[in-house]
Amino acid sequence: MTTDLRRDSPGVAEEVVQAIEACCARSFRRVFPPRFSFRRMAEEFVSERRCREQLALARRCLPFDLVGKRVLEIGSAYGMMLAVARLELGVEAFGVEPGEKFEGTFALSGRVLSGLGIDPGIVRQGTGEAIPYESGSFDVVFSWNVLEHVADPAKVFAESVRVLRPGGCLFFVFPNYGSWWEGHYGILWWPDLPRGLAKAYVRLLGRDPAFVDTLQLLNRRRIEQCLAPLEGSVRVREWGTAIWEERLRTLDVADWALLARLRKIVRWVKALGLTELVIRLGRRLSWETPFVLVVEKTSP
Question: Is the overall model pTM greater than 0.85, yes or no?
Fold first, then answer.
């Protein structure tokens, strides 16, 4: 079965896209570049194709197949990932969504899921720092581009591991601020830029510096610090380094949001014959971006 919100519930699809477009235009007017299409951004939030790509990456990186597994998505937004996982992969998928950053998100997820014939109760209102599920409830905890927005990344890791069964994995994709790219602004970034300098930098580019204060500027060292209290009960299986290297070599960079700009930069790096040099330096300095972090729970 193929998920298609516009086919199955066109009225709901348009209602949700219009609501997302209006919200994003208010929230990101001076974050994204001039003439950015917020309509396009809204449509991407409920894109089945994007969800399939993300789930395919997860299936590639996890040590077991998702089919038939019980999974939780932290920051499930409008519920489309859950819908695709359930309807197309047979995954028992659930979500947690605070619905605070984008007003109406939690309610709209219910509209999306109901429009696709799925019980909206699979999404609970809550945060990654206080997951409203019992310990040992899931085989996988997912998160896509959420960790940089949470209040306490270490607590999110601890809670995610708590709700995993032994042998289960968390799969988190999020920006690396120890790298050269910042995807929210769609700009080149200086690795490990301090927050004050980061705000000055984006101000020089004519963008809203206040948005920097909403971000966790995570790099590999910071993630290792967040995971340190869990030592002995988890092990890191994947950081996404090999995937980053493959994308640099093949130019296989998606065009979602502002990634088309990154793809142009990657093409220039290749045209100048610098790809292998960048990869060698990136291995040493942890430039992989985004992080594609897979952490296995090894004990209760």
Answer: yes
